[in-house]
Amino acid sequence: MTDNETLTCDVAVIGAGTAGLAAERAARKNGATTLLIDPAFAGTTCATVGCMPSKLLIAAAKARHAVARADSFGIRTAGVTIDEAALFERVRAERDRFVRLTRESIAKIPDGIRIEAMARFTGPDSLELDNGQRVKARAIVIATGSRPVMPDAFAALGDLALTNENVFELEKLPRRLAVVGSGAIGLELAQAFAHLGVEVSLFDKADTIAKIRCPRVHKAMKDIIAEDIDLHLGVDITPSREGDEVAVTWKGASSGTARFDRLLVAVGRTPILDTLDLTKAGLECDDKGVPCHDRATMRCGESAVFIAGDVAADIPLLHEASHDGAIAGRNAAALPAPVRTERHVPFSIIFTEPPIVSIGKAEADGAVSGYTDYGNQGRARVEARNEGALTLYAAAPDGVLIGADIAAPGAEHLGHLLAWVIEQGMTATEVLAFPFYHPTIEEGLKSALRTVCAATPIPIPEDQDSGSPAGA
């Protein structure tokens, strides 16, 4: 390939993250010739700075937290220390392994498909690359991902400001850490650092952490977070650098000033669209500059352009990005014949302790709800993690489950079960007809399910015991 060469293909994909890789695979699988364009092929956000390194840090925090709580079982653990260098070395070593495996899979894409370059639109079906080449494609998929939002006030802190893109490069734990933003990234990392013994303060403009929809579940989780973290909701903050420290002043529901060693900025992520010259593509965009698109096809209006993953600003989760890419790639290959896809029930997990799960529709969308308090649930109490709550939502009149909010032990597993049940359109009665082993965390579902049944014309299964064994 030479400068000014014009390459042609059926489907050109811009971005080699989770969504872009899925889109290229799907388009090629469906008979299209493809080009995959990325400036670095560095690996996915999940592997490099997202899901995997954060879970590695959380795993270390869980180990330390378990030791700290061992006393409740009569197990004395005096003199426990953290080898901070070893802790971060493991995080990076395992992260690098995931990244290497991702890059190896990218390297297996057939020769001639991968192009290392930046792309921008020159027309609805054409691109110009920063290596001098041009691309003419029958369809184009935008899968450029997102980046952390970094307001100027935080950028002015220089190296004292952290994001998910550099926090895993730390060599030692800060003694005092401010975290701004109580979404998934902020909440996970705030609690992980707190469980590693760091003094953590968490700030957010919002009054609700993690956008938890159910007030009872929110209260339960807020109380749990506040056990380890100095929590300030409903506040505006002003940060400033003072030597090697960050001074934070906050006002609102509470007010004060404190100093920290580092500040983690987790106020959201923004789609990477500024390098694409979207005006040349002729796309209609929303008020945030994101191309308007149909989630059933990921097509942008009636154009030959599709969008997938975090850049679409729909549901910024890996499984959604992967699904977006598969849908976009298949439809790009099939253009102009649309292949509409029914999307999965919305399903998110925040890997705090306990995890926070949101599934499907909210309480306002359901006629019936059922609630379980995990504060006295048998198996949870056995394991000294009896905290949190679960709320189920069902539609009238037949008690079909439509959603759930959970902050409880084992929520990531309960969440999968409930997401599958909701996708199948099952009623609370039908779920109660399944076996529940004793003693398990899953038994905690029964009281919520029975509440739903009691509020609908569909009764609890007559051949099932209406009582509960001790501790269920």
What does the model show?
- This protein is of the alpha/beta class and 472 residues long.
- It is built from 12 helices and 22 strands.
- The strands form 5 sheets. Strands 1, 2, 3, 4, 5, 6 and 17 form a 7-stranded mixed beta sheet that branches.
- A hairpin with a 4-residue loop joins β21 (389-395) and β22 (400-407).
- α3 packs parallel to α6 (184-195).
- It is globular and about 75 Å long.
Question: What's the gist of this structure?
Answer:
The chain has 472 residues and is an alpha/beta fold.
What are the SSEs and their pairings?
Blueprint: E1 6-14, H1 18-29, E2 34-38, H2 45-48, H3 51-69, H4 84-107, E3 114-116, E4 119-123, E5 126-129, E6 134-142, E7 146-148, H5 152-155, E8 161-162, E9 176-180, H6 184-195, E10 199-204, H7 215-226, E11 230-233, E12 235-242, E13 245-252, E14 256-260, E15 262-265, E16 269-271, E17 305-307, H8 318-334, E18 347-350, E19 356-360, E20 368-373, H9 378-382, E21 389-395, E22 400-407, H10 411-423, H11 428-432, H12 445-454
Distance between the termini: 67 Å
Strand content: 15-25%
Mean pLDDT: 95
Number of strands: 22
Please give the radius of gyration in angstroms: 25 Å
Largest sheet: 7 strands, mixed
Annotation field: number of helices? 12
Low-confidence stretches: none
